[in-house]
């Protein structure tokens, strides 16, 4: 704790803690891409909030818009072809989409950091990991090479890379997959950000290593009281670490719920289908339930509810009206805090 | 068949070899007959005995000398019966994909035998090997790179018929390919489309159709669903189960997702650093594991049920898998094992029913390569 002393060199990143609202608030975000086949609507009105110390899991299949939302928050979306026609992203009450590039640059890395999926292709193969970790300090804090390297060693210790001092000059290919992912985590942590976005951080790892990395991430989050957005398609990983879950489908959030609630009583047919389609470890089931059909093409999202062609409960209204994400209640009207479902028939789904 | 033998004569054109070739031809015909006969009742269709594959590590440019070997597969034995699914699980680098390549005879084994209906396929060549290859097919992991982007679906699925024309006469091929598309749940009219026009799940169906084209008896599936989305995985798994019933196929199902392996497998083998750590029925492995590695592996699987998770014990292994070029002495798992004692460094544990369970009527009495085997349920909440 001695070397990474945030008050000494960073101009007090957490000095503005007086802001009372959530750390991050995404409001009605839309993202689209111009492609040869037309406009692909990747994100169509996403809302979510993350508070300090909270873990939000964004769950969805490929093409559901979960990573694009994260890239929009980070400001690393390729524009063009990407475009944000509508929406606001508030970080500590300030709309980042209205900021200048310089202002965003100050937030990126220092206040919001990102962990990418594939550590091998996210690290530069021709620079040592020590140099790449130190870059954060050299660029953002203007430290000398020597000081930056000392801090890099410290970071590597913190993410439990054995013999950090000896390995600081090694190159990414000399590390195993789990160790590389630790380096990615160290890099995201370097400037002690308030919010970390982890995009499928363990997908490329074996289960035993995955457990190590997720544990580490959870420990560090607790230690620094960071907000965490965990993007994943793995229902198992989510169950282990998340506080609340947002399920995405075709660029929209179709269900939100606290983690226990979601698994116990899903309120959207898509969530229910996903839960039913994964085999269980603790018992041998019969035939798996399979959601029929394929995820929609983003240039031609079905009218009404995007899930209607695959939904067993779909009726006429589902083909015409887009369901809004509405609060879910108990059968007697009792409140279920944090729960919402974008389904015309959520009552039947959760209580039926 | 006629043009086949002709091409073989052309290869063996050197005069001295003709005599040997005729002798070979006789044994070869015998082997082919054995391979094409149906498997005998109760006999395993595939028997793997002490299979070894070492990849040499060399040094020097002109005078290459061997300085070591990557022991990818180091003495593996198992049986496969007709109509059953054998799951093989393990971390990356444990040699499971090398086993698949050895069974396909895409790699030459360093030692050991693989008996297919009594014929050792590691020693076969020519016609007999070709007959074996027809009966053992493979479905690959990545449906994006395992299909040639310049070939139409019809050409991809029909290509096996070029090598084995006896299965489908020339004029009949198009219809056969369309039948196969129908069997795997794709529209037969898609025959002239290219792979990029399909989604991941559909491409994997094309890969499966190609594997089925020659009516094989065994299909080796190397991570067939790990590249697919959750909702599509279930579709492909259900398709594979349906096909197994329909064609009485035997599967070797290689995967790292333990839940899927349990779902599809009748028996499961757990590999660690080129050796089999434990093998048994799915109930034996998942509900009554006795090898510490199996227990650690199972306990690390994230369970999609927060309530079940809380009562579960988690064993978090430290460190990474050691290098297969320089595996630990004795038991290979001892460097990460919490039970390891001196004995584990000296003696290699054999894959057998552990002494403590011999003769006992319990699910724990299955083959496990550990000196201190002990039953421990890590999957169910306490």
Automatic annotation (TrEMBL), chain A:
Membrane topology field: Peripheral membrane protein
**Occurrences of domain ABC transporter (ranges):** 26-275
* MF (Gene Ontology): ATP binding; ATP hydrolysis activity
Do you know which InterPro entries this protein is assigned to?
A: AAA+_ATPase, ABC_Ni/Peptide_Import, ABC_transporter-like_ATP-bd, ABC_transporter-like_CS, Oligopep_ABC_C, P-loop_NTPase
Q: What compartments host this protein?
A: Cell membrane
Transport found in the keyword field: yes
Chief place where the protein resides: membrane
- UniProt lists compositionally biased (Polar residues) regions at 1-11
One annotated Gene Ontology cellular component of this protein: plasma membrane
Give a GO biological-process term: peptide transport
Which intervals of the chain are annotated as region Disordered?
A: 1-21
Question: Which keywords does the record carry?
Answer: ATP-binding, Cell membrane, Membrane, Nucleotide-binding, Transport
Which Pfam families does the entry link to? Answer: ABC_tran, oligo_HPY
SUPFAM superfamilies in the record, alphabetically?
P-loop containing nucleoside triphosphate hydrolases
Q: Which family does it belong to?
A: Belongs to the ABC transporter superfamily.
- Protein name per its UniProtKB record: ABC transporter ATP-binding protein
Q: Which organism is it from?
A: Streptomyces mesophilus
Query: What taxonomic lineage is listed for the species of origin?
Result: Bacteria, Bacillati, Actinomycetota, Actinomycetes, Kitasatosporales
From TrEMBL, chain B:
Similarity field = Belongs to the ABC transporter superfamily.
Q: What is this protein called?
A: Dipeptide ABC transporter ATP-binding protein
**Signal sequence extent:** none
In terms of Pfam families, this protein maps to: ABC_tran, oligo_HPY
- ABC transporter domain mapped to chain residues: 46-298
PROSITE patterns for this protein: ABC_TRANSPORTER_1, ABC_TRANSPORTER_2
Provide this UniProt record's keywords sorted from A to Z. ATP-binding, Nucleotide-binding, Transport
PANTHER family in UniProt: D,D-DIPEPTIDE TRANSPORT ATP-BINDING PROTEIN DDPF-RELATED (PTHR43776:SF7), TRANSPORT ATP-BINDING PROTEIN (PTHR43776)
Gene3D superfamilies listed in its UniProt record: P-loop containing nucleotide triphosphate hydrolases
Any one biological process term the GO annotation gives = peptide transport
Q: Name one GO molecular function term.
A: ATP binding
Alphabetized InterPro entries for the sequence: AAA+_ATPase, ABC_transp_ATP-bind, ABC_transporter-like_ATP-bd, ABC_transporter-like_CS, Oligopep_ABC_C, P-loop_NTPase
Q: Which organism is it from?
A: Streptomyces mesophilus
């Amino acid at each position: 704790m001695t070397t990474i002393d945030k008050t000494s060199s960073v101009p007090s990143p957490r000095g503005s803690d007086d802001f009372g609202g959530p750390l991050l608030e995404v409001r009605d975000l839309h993202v689209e891409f111009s492609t040869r086949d037309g406009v692909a609507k990747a994100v169509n009105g996403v809302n979510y909030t993350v508070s300090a110390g909270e873990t939000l899991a964004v769950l969805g299949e490929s093409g559901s818009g979960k990573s694009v939302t994260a890239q929009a928050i980070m400001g690393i979306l390729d524009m063009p072809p990407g475009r944000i026609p509508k929406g606001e992203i508030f970080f500590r009450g300030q709309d980042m989409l209205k900021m200048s590039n310089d202002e965003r640059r100050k937030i990126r890395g220092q206040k919001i950091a990102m962990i990418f999926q594939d550590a091998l292709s996210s690290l530069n193969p021709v620079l040592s990991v020590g140099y790449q970790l130190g870059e954060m300090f050299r660029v953002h804090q203007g430290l000398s090479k020597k000081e930056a390297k000392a801090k890099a060693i410290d970071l590597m210790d913190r993410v439990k890379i054995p013999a950090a001092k000896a390995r600081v000059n090694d190159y990414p290919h000399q590390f195993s997959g789990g160790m590389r992912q630790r380096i990615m985590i160290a890099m995201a942590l370097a400037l002690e950000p308030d919010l970390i976005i982890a995009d499928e951080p363990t997908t490329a790892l074996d289960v035993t290593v995955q457990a190590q990395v997720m544990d580490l991430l959870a420990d560090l989050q607790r230690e620094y009281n960071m907000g965490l957005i965990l993007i994943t398609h793995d229902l198992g990983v989510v169950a282990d670490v998340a506080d609340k879950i947002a399920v995405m489908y075709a660029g929209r959030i179709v269900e939100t719920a606290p983690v226990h609630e979601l698994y116990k009583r899903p309120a959207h047919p898509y969530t229910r289908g996903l839960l039913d389609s994964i085999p269980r470890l603790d018992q041998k089931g019969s035939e798996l339930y399979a959601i029929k059909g394929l995820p929609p093409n983003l240039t031609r999202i079905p009218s009404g509810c995007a899930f209607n062609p695959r939904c067993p409960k779909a009726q006429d209204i589902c083909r015409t009206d887009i369901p809004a994400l509405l609060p879910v209640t108990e059968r007697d009207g009792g409140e279920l805090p944090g729960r919402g479902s974008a389904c015309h028939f959520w009552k039947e789904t959760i209580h039926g | 068949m006629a043009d086949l033998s002709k091409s073989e004569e052309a290869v063996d054109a050197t005069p001295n070899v003709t005599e040997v070739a005729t002798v070979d031809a006789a044994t070869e015909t015998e082997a082919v007959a054995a391979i094409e006969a149906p498997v005998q009742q109760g006999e395993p269709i595939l028997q793997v005995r002490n299979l070894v594959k070492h990849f040499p590590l060399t040094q020097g440019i002109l005078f290459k000398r061997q300085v070591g070997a990557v022991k990818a597969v180091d003495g593996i034995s198992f049986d496969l019966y007709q109509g059953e699914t054998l799951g093989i699980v393990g971390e990356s680098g444990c040699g499971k994909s090398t086993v698949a390549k050895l069974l396909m005879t895409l790699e030459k084994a360093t030692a050991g035998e693989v008996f297919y209906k009594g014929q050792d396929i590691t020693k076969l060549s020519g016609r007999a090997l070709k007959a074996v290859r027809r009966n053992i097919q493979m479905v690959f992991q990545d449906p994006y790179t395992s299909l040639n982007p310049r070939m139409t679906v019809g050409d991809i699925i029909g290509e096996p018929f070029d090598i084995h024309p006896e299965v489908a006469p020339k004029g009949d091929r198009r219809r056969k390919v369309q039948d196969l598309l129908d069997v795997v749940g794709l529209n037969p009219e898609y025959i002239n489309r290219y792979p990029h026009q399909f989604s991941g799940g559909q491409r994997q169906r094309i890969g499966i159709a190609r594997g089925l084209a020659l009516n094989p008896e065994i299909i080796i599936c190397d991570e067939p669903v790990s590249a697919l989305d959750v909702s599509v995985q279930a579709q492909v798994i259900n398709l594979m189960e349906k096909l197994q019933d329909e064609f009485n196929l035997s599967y070797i199902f290689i995967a790292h997702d333990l839940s899927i392996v349990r779902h599809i497998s009748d028996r499961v083998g757990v590999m660690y650093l080129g050796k089999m750590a434990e093998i048994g029925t799915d109930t034996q492995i998942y509900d009554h594991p006795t090898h510490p590695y199996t227990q650690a592996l199972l306990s690390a699987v994230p369970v999609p049920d927060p309530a079940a998770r809380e009562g579960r014990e988690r064993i978090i292994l430290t460190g990474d898998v050691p290098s297969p070029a320089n595996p630990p002495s004795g038991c290979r798992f001892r460097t990460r094992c919490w039970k390891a004692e001196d004995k584990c460094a000296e003696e290699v544990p054999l894959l057998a029913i552990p002494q403590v369970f011999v003769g006992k009527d319990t699910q724990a009495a299955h083959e496990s390569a550990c000196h201190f085997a002990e039953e421990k349920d890590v999957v169910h909440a306490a």
